Amino acid sequence: MLTTLAVLMGLTGITPAAQAGGSEVDVTLVLAVDTSRSMDFEEIGIQREGYVEALKHKEFIDAVKGGLTGRIAIGYFEWAGYVVQDSVIDWQVIETEEDAIAFADKLEARPIATQRRTSISTAIAQGASMIVSSPFQSRRQVIDVSGDGPNNSGDPVTPARDKAVEAGMIINGLAIMLRPSDAPNGLDKYYADCVIGGPGAFVLPVRKIEDFAVAVRRKLVLEISDLSRPATVQKIAGAEAGTDCLIGEKQWRDIFDR
């Protein structure tokens, strides 16, 4: 199980298997989806529906076909304090509407469950490992992290992010802000300063449950098309003074120190 920063420590300088000869795609994209217990079953169900709907949407399929090769490779897993191993859906090439529907159907068929804690660092490690070992060659390698709280388990998030970025990957975020989070200045700012990284990295906030499907579709299209980010999308290159990227760990420790 990929639960420690050690997974990432050797990434810089590793040549992905795809570069030794494999299928060419425009993007290798890993969807890392939070299923921690801070979200209830209804919210996780709506999150799942959002991804399923986005993957089947014409706008997503048109974005795939509009690339240089007209195909992408996509993988998926769910995480909380650890990676949910039976949730991992290995790489699938998306080239046609039928491909996209088949992948979405695999997501839709998964049972809905929740797990304890939040380890964004573990999610990044899993995504990075999947990309490094993938059989594809692509212009962009993207880890797409959705979550509703700051890192509070496993290794700190910023070293994990930095190692993945040094290895040439992009980390984008979907900050689920349906409820108040443990991030004092807003979860979108925490994601912007502590989680995302790489050229053109961005985070999209979701504040209303009815906006989830549109936000997921918008994010996927941006990632696949590599379009210019609209001004409403937060895009921050590094942590700013005053952002505590260990806030989740400190709050969890305070619970047990009382």
TrEMBL record:
Keyword vocabulary terms for this entry: Signal
Signal sequence interval, chain numbering: 1-20
Record has Signal as a keyword: yes
InterPro entries: DUF1194, vWFA_dom_sf
Coiled-coil residue spans: none
Keyword Nucleotidyltransferase among record annotations: no
Listed name of the protein: DUF1194 domain-containing protein
Biological source species: Rhizobium indigoferae
Phylogenetic placement of the source organism: Bacteria, Pseudomonadati, Pseudomonadota, Alphaproteobacteria, Hyphomicrobiales
